[in-house]
Amino acid sequence: MSRQKTNRQAFGSVRQLPSGRWQAxxxxxxxxxxxxPATFPTKREAQDHIAGVRADRMRGTYRDHRAGLQPFGPYxxxxxxxxxxxxxxxxxxQALYEDLLAGPLAGLHDRALSAITPADVRAWYTRTRKxxxxxxxxxxxxxxxxxxxxxxxxxxxxxxxxVKDRLISENPCQIEGAGQVNDPERPYLSPEHLAxxxxxxxxxxxxxxxxxxxxxxxxxxxxxxxxxxxxNGAVRVERQRIYVRGQGIITPTKTGEARTVVxxxxxxxxxxxxxxxxxxxPKSPMFPRRDGEAITGNALSHAWRKAARGIGLGQFHVHxxxxxxxxxxxQAGGTTRELMARAGHRTARAALIYQHAAEERNAVLxxxxxxxGAVRVExxxxxxxxxx
Length: 388
Description:
48% of the residues lie in helices and 9% in strands.
């Protein structure tokens, strides 16, 4: 059987331009004629380009270079409006992304996706860092780095989506280390330090803080607790209060899943006494203000900072309550799965952090035990020598 040679020009055509360069033409996916994205110095290179396009079409890997002419701004806005990579964004996250697009990323809105190069991204990154540093220069401790990290991370994520949509061939966000969170590990809030801070706070905050510690609550989850969430020594954590552009709204928990956390008996007894001595409906706030509305995380944080700084423990934040409670649970022998259930974590990674902290704390305790034991042994030996 004779084999017919494939004519690669049957798929397209080439012609020489007055400049001497060669132009390649071939049908687009809809069958309409289109030009290659660039011209070629030789006829052979133009023919090879046509052959490559044809092969990509057959493999299903073809990318129409014209698709990348879409401006970044409209593409990014549509990506956010459609829920990002997973098709759903939390209200707070969507508001953050919209603010970043309107702020640090505004200068890229009119740029075609395919026209954004790694050099462009580096120039934008340097320029934006200077702008953000200038904007926060009068705010003590502020650097603008967190905002820059958020903006770069969003830009990289959106351009990754453009790669998957075959609008661009590769992601131009290639700055090493940019967009990564490098927050230092928070200091360990010991029960002794916690007791000291709570003791320096007004009494109205004592029980809310102990509940947050014992149930490993996020501040927003503490705000959203209702009287009916407590039953038989445990609290049901179903919701949180978040703030979007200053407006507080109630949403499901951060992971979208509810959890039941058994409180330490001493704290459970305090909650029962609190509920028995106050009135309200099951959906009333567990910890209300004088006007009947729920306490706010802002007021709690303010009271905490004032008390902590007043006794020389300003390094601790109210958000350290959750970390401290989970670390203590790990020290008490909690397994990874048990810590995940109590904290509401989806993956084991976060739970392992608390177990690691517990291991470090256990090592400190062991060293102290060894030291105390050595002192006692020497005392016994000394007494024994005296008897002799």
